[in-house]
Amino acid sequence: MKILSVENLSRSFGGIKANNDISFEVIEGTILGVIGPNGAGKSTLFDLITGYTKTDNGKVSFFNKDISGLSPDKISSLGIGRTFQKLKPFADQTLLENVMIGSFVKEDNIKKARDKALEIIDFVDLIEKRHHFARELSTGQRKRLEMARAMAIEPKLLLMDEVTGGVDQKTIPGLVELIKKLKKSGVTIITIEHNINIIMEISDNILALDQGKRIAYGTPKEIQQNEEVIDSYLGT
Ligand code: ADP
Ligand code: MG
User: Fold this and answer.
1) Using one digit for the tens of pLDDT, what is the confidence trace for 48-73?
2) Dihedral of alpha carbons 213, 216, 219, 223, sign
3) Residue 12: beta bridge partners?
4) Band of pLDDT at residue 4, cut at 50, 70 and 90
5) What mean pLDDT do residues 93-107 have?
6) Does the ipTM surpass 0.95?
7) Do residue 14 and residue 29 come from a single domain?
8) Which of 9, 11, 12, 16 to mutate to test the pocket of ligand 1 (most atoms within 8 A of CB)?
9) pTM for this one?
């Protein structure tokens, strides 16, 4: 079952084609990995899917419903969650409060919203930190909190922007395991990731962007054999 369909998506900023005629599909229950050098248009693609940026051209469908042009709030309420490359937790609120802001969208009952938030905080392995302020967390823990905040709306599709970016090497495997656990729980995932080994390991399909264009799209095996990708990433 197709959960997301992106057709001929384009967006320019001044003279820069940040996304240039991008098309792809995501099958429910799978992970799509998105790779590409800095400035390739990866974060812009997320902004277009989630309504944070208006598209110049093209169409985004979620469960075959056209969601192009809807507001970020509306898109989120339909079941598309996202994390941001630049983390945005409420620094002076506790983890529990941070996640409850999201779970309140789904639960009008405070006890239920709290229980749901605690369940998610436990899922991301931060339960002992639930009463700590977000600013007290390490970068790796803040990444987990960012995932928990996105999960609080109970998304069917979760977009994650560089979850393992900016964290130290020893923190990465735990975050990768968390992404896998999230997939197992039934959430469909699109993840932007710089580390090619991680992308090859976790993705069912991979989309490679460069200068706003789709340069490759296929299974990890297909991508590994793609000349353009080899030149940009896998070469020596
Ligand atoms: P990536 O996430 O792959 O590093 P981005 O999507 O952030 O790339 O950026 C793609 C291009 O679009 C870059 O040249 C960037 O400077 C430009 N861009 C992105 N967002 C904006 C914006 N809001 N205003 C102007 N230019 C932007
Ligand atoms: Mg980016």
Assistant:
1) 999 999 999 999 999 999 999 999 99
2) negative
3) 17
4) very high
5) 88
6) yes
7) yes
8) 16
9) 0.94
Judgement on whether residues 71 and 173 belong to the same structural domain of the protein: yes
Calculated CA dihedral for residues 88, 206, 204, 77, nearest 10 degrees: 40
Can you tell me whether residue 205 is helix, strand or coil?
strand
Residue 133 CA to residue 117 CA, distance in Å, equals 15
Looking at the structure, do residues 146 and 163 belong to the same domain, yes or no?
no
Write out the residue range of the structural domain in which residue 195 sits.
Answer: 1-79+156-236
Where would I find the H helices in 86-171? 95-106, 110-123, 139-151
Q: Whose CA is nearest to atom 27 of ligand 1?
A: 13
Q: Are residues 104 and 118 in the same domain?
A: yes
Residues 139 and 180 placed together within one structural domain of the fold? no
Last residue of one domain, picked from the residues 154, 182, 205: 154
CA of 43 to the centre of ligand 2 (A): 4
Q: Are residues 175 and 131 in the same domain?
A: no
pLDDT in tens, 31-40: 999 999 999 9
Q: What is the pLDDT of residues 172-212, one digit of tens each?
A: 999 999 999 999 999 999 999 999 899 999 999 999 999 99
Pocket test for ligand 1, best of 9, 10, 12, 13 (most atoms within 8 A of CB): 13
* Final residue before a domain boundary, out of 105, 137, 154: 154
